């Protein structure tokens, strides 16, 4: 009888289900607006775009902030959180560049005997994370955190992405002031960073030692999408003790060739003026 009573209760109140569906639909619209929009949005922006009352938006946004999917930013604005970006990238693993990249990452790891990874740009937050990894026969004596948001200011994988994002993105990332994950150093100045990124673009890859992990060398080459925008990078990491100057051209050359091939599979058409690099 209890079970029947519960069923009757739900049947007698169809408006409860309708209200629940309405809330879910509104939340989906809000998340979609953030995913498709700019860096941040105000209550006024969202109210005009979604035709929702400001009071309703306040209530739903407060719940999304509590859930960790949206965060407050300066000037009474809101933006998507790192967690929202992380979830989106995890979902994207099942399709697109990530599916195409898996065999490439595995081939590079076999050919070099070093650990190869795919880094993915999170454009809304201007951060990155590793979404695919192929450990090789030569292990690394340090942990590599997967699906964890990382700054673009430190390490080869982040700098490689930042090098092809443009001046405005570089300034935005610098304004955040992400400190060194190793020793808390402050970021370089705008001019110094711009010169470093220009060098990365000129040579076609980034190389760093001990910026994200002590005594670890990172080498990364850019991966582009169909719109000629950078979407990620192909990278190798190995201990400094296993790396020599002679390895740089060999490993960087291999990464650039494989990253360029992966970009073509992803629909990228390189500009002839840049010799195949954007």
Short summary of the structure?
This protein is an alpha+beta fold and 278 residues long. Helix content is 49%, strand content 18%.
Detailed description of the structure:
The strands form two sheets. Strands 5-4-8-7-6 form a five-stranded antiparallel beta sheet, with helices on both faces. Strands 1-3-2 form a three-stranded antiparallel beta sheet. It is built from ten helices and eight strands. It folds into two domains: 2-80, Winged helix-like DNA-binding domain superfamily/Winged helix DNA-binding domain (Arc Repressor Mutant, subunit A); 85-274, Beta-Lactamase (2-Layer Sandwich). It has 278 residues and is α+β, with helices and mostly antiparallel strands. Helix content is 49%, strand content 18%. The chain has helices at 2-11, 14-36, 43-50, 54-67, 82-92, 97-112, 156-163, 167-176, 190-203, 245-265, and strands spanning 41-42, 70-73, 77-80, 115-122, 127-134, 206-209, 216-224, 230-239. Helix 6 packs antiparallel against helix 10 and helix 7 crosses helix 9 (190-203).
- What is the highest CATH level, the class of the largest domain? Alpha Beta
Unreliable spans are: 1-18
Secondary-structure element pattern, one letter each: HHEHHEEHHEEHHHEEEH
CATH architecture of the largest domain: 2-Layer Sandwich
Helical percentage = 40-55%
CATH topology of the largest domain: Beta-Lactamase
Topology:
Elements: H1 2-11, H2 14-36, E1 41-42, H3 43-50, H4 54-67, E2 70-73, E3 77-80, H5 82-92, H6 97-112, E4 115-122, E5 127-134, H7 156-163, H8 167-176, H9 190-203, E6 206-209, E7 216-224, E8 230-239, H10 245-265
Antiparallel strand pairs: 1-3, 2-3, 4-5, 4-8, 6-7, 7-8
